Each structure stands twice: as structure tokens, then as C-alpha cells.
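Re-run requested by the PI after the first attempt was lost when the workstation crashed. Everything re-entered from the original request form. Ligand of interest: SN-glycerol-3-phosphate.
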Amino acid sequence: MSASGARRWPYPRILAHRGGGKLAPENTLGAIRLGAAMGFHGVEFDVMLAGCGTPVLIHDETLKRTTGGRGEVARTPYGTLAQLDAGAWHSRPFRGERIPRFEDAARLCRELHLWANVEIKPATGHERRTGEAVARAAHTLWRGAAQPPVLSSFSPLALAAARHAAPELPRGLLVGRIPRHWRELMQDLECVALHCNYRALSRRLAAQIHAAGYAILAWTVNDRRSARKLFGWGVNCLVTDALDRVGAEFR
Ligand code: G3P
Ligand code: MG
């Protein structure tokens, strides 16, 4: 990374998506351990509020896909979530993995010296509350850390609440496609980075985003050719599911 790139993004340049990419059950402690064991220095994971307000690692609003449980995360207390098996759907060796609390994941990341991109993943209708709770928790959990996490979200409401709760934590705006008014959004939310689907980027757009002073994180890049191209455009950070294929060459 060039000197100006490193100034914009002083974090690892490749992150393990949802902890361990496709090689482990997403958003579990086992996944985060695997990411670290495979030599990653940074991970991305998703945080949502359980029914009781405890922040937990999970991607979907419902429990079915990753736990076989029934119902919605936002209506289920953590005590119930903690009983579910969040690893069996993936593969036998991961049976018995649990839905971790955000605080468990943060502790593990600090122990393993892994940097984190914490994606605030609010259940519909819980955007502000989630942004605020996750930012407050992150503020406490990474107290004294050399590199606290970047908080990102697809939800501008969640990011605004995060800024209010912990203004010192850097923020990234997540987008699938890059909206025409990206500059205004980034400015309003005081974000440091645009986190976009890599397919939405072009060399020209990347140059414009950098010229505006922002870093670029691209997800989810699972082949080396795309990774090389994106780094060639100066993209600061890639998130990958292919820890084995993409990870090794670019860490
Ligand atoms: O933060 C990058 C990426 O995780 C965003 O999409 O749906 O995998 O959380 P998703
Ligand atoms: Mg995510």
C-alpha cells in the first residue's frame, strides 16, 4: 500500500469474512480462531441485538439457516440463543459452536491480536438501538486497544446512532451499489471508508473515492485475479471468504 493509502487505512489489508469465510461456520468463535490460525490479522463479523438487547454475532434476522432454530433473533433472548448449535449446519468438526456474544468475540480478537471490522447488522426496525448498543459496547470492549475496530453498516440510521454513542470509533458506510450521493452520505455520517461490493467498483470510481479522502474496502473477493485488480486500483482492504486461495497471497 502507498504511504497515502496506509494513512487512510492503517488496518490489515485483507479480512476474513464472518470470521473464517467459507471454511468455518460464520460468525462463531471457531471461525475467528480459524481466521487467526490461517494467518489473518483482521476479521469482519456481523452484530445484531438479541431479544433481551444483548449484542450477538449473527448475519440473518431469523435463526433457521445457521442454527436450525425457529423464530427471529430480535425476539429471542440470549439465554435461548445460547442453547442453539451454530456449527452443525456447516460441518461435523464444528458441531457445538454457539452464537457468541459480541463481548466474547471482542475478547477473543484482542487475545489473538486480530483487528476487527464490526458490521452493525440491525434487525429491521431496530436500526438506531442497534447502532447505539454496538458502538457503546465496542467503546468499552476495546478500551486501551492500539487499534479499535471500524464500525460499518448498510444502515445510515445505525451509523448515525453509533457516531452519537461513540464518536471516536471510525465508521464505514456499507453499500451494494455505490449511490450517486455517496459523497453527501459519507460526509453526513463522518465515515472514513466506503465498504462496497467489489463488483460495483471501477478504477475511475476508486480514484474518485480516494480523491475525496476516503479509504475503500471491497467485499467479498474470492478469487486472486479480482484481488490483484482491486489492489492495482489502490483499494485499501478486501474481505474474503476464500481464506485459503486469496488469503495466502495477499496478507
Ligand atoms: O462487511 C462486508 C460484508 O459482510 C457485507 O455483507 O451480507 O456478508 O454482511 P454481508
Ligand atoms: Mg457482514
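Saved to the shared folder this time. The beta strands are 14-16, 42-49, 55-57, 115-120, 150-153, 171-175, 193-197, 215-219, 237-240.
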